[in-house]
Design a protein that fits this description.
305 residues, alpha+beta, six-stranded mixed beta sheet, 14% helix, 32% strand
Length: 305
């Protein structure tokens, strides 16, 4: 038996065992510790039903959007702090600007997104960006449920239909961090994309990275992307990631603060089986983080994605 609710309704606390399907949230009863379920079919058009030519690359983007708050100076953390609690008439305009950026990419990882509460005008920002950015498939991971006050979330937007989505709460003393596992393709001939937003504390980060390692260490084709709250050199030297051979951009690419970036906190890491063709931080000051983008080349076994 399944219970369905419209996406903008408040979902009762039934764990994280839910997925988004054609604009509706289906809540599965009897949640499992690590739920697995079909990914969102999204909005299917006649074009989507036509045979697709082989795909040899993917354009990826990771963006911490700070729930659509346009922060362009440190003092805005004070003067615009009320927007973390209350709606603002310019917020959807900011989301429209973000959507324009996202349209150039095949798969987008979103952090600090609101799932539909008072502060966002009860707009599910993941769904809004999927529709405005013309993505057929989207998924919202709700990490902190503060009822009508806030729905702290991560999100994924994809132009490729995933074969599987897994929702993983990350370990930590304070609940509220999560990872989304998206599988494109099937079996060994699949791409595993991990979207995450790590905690701030070093010890908690180590626990979370050990958890992530267990998810990815036996898979040949992996993308790890998100706000990792860590400079790249510190991240790759963590014991949990050593020995995986993860590849990153050769140059340091600061993403924070957006108005004068000095810290590289957002990253896209790939396994050696994938080719890094291009990586950049976009000159975009819509949020307090700048988005980071990467185009990856796919091995022959993944050209059918």
């Amino acid at each position: 038996m399944q219970l369905t609710f419209t996406c903008q309704q408040y979902l009762p606390s039934l764990g994280t065992d839910h997925f988004i399907q054609k604009g509706r949230a289906t809540v599965m009863q009897e949640p499992t510790p690590v739920p697995q379920y079909p990914a969102s079919p999204g909005l299917v058009s006649d074009h989507d039903k036509q045979p697709r030519s082989p795909r040899d690359s993917l354009k990826l983007l990771s963006f911490n959007i700070q729930v659509g708050i346009n922060t362009q100076a440190y003092h805005h953390y004070v003067t615009r702090s009320w927007q973390h609690l209350l709606p603002h008439r310019q917020r959807n305009r900011t989301l429209d600007e973000i959507a324009q950026v996202l349209r150039q990419y095949d798969l987008v990882a979103l952090q600090e997104v609101d799932g539909g509460s008072l502060r966002s005008g009860f707009v599910n920002q993941v769904e809004y960006l999927a529709q405005s950015g013309q993505f057929q498939h989207w998924y919202q991971q709700r990490n902190r449920n503060l009822g009508k006050l806030a729905q702290h979330s991560n999100g994924v937007l994809s132009r490729i239909e995933p074969s599987l989505v897994e929702d993983h709460p990350l370990p930590g003393l304070i609940p509220g961090r999560g990872a989304i596992v998206v599988r494109l393709g099937s079996g060994e001939n699949s791409l595993l994309v991990i979207v995450l937003h790590l905690a701030l504390g070093v010890r908690t980060q180590d626990r979370q990275l050990r958890y992530i390692r267990e998810l990815i260490e036996h898979h040949p084709h992996v993308v790890l992307m998100g706000d990792m709250n860590n400079p790249l050199e510190h991240l790759l030297n963590r014991p949990a990631l050593q020995g995986l051979g993860l590849v990153s951009a050769e140059q340091v690419m600061p993403t924070y603060p957006s108005w004068k970036p000095t810290r590289a906190l957002d990253h896209i890491l790939i396994t050696p089986s994938l080719e890094m063709r291009h990586a950049e931080v976009l000159d975009c000051t819509i949020s307090d983080h700048r988005p980071i983008a990467m185009e990856i080349g796919l091995p022959q076994c993944l050209h059918g994605l």
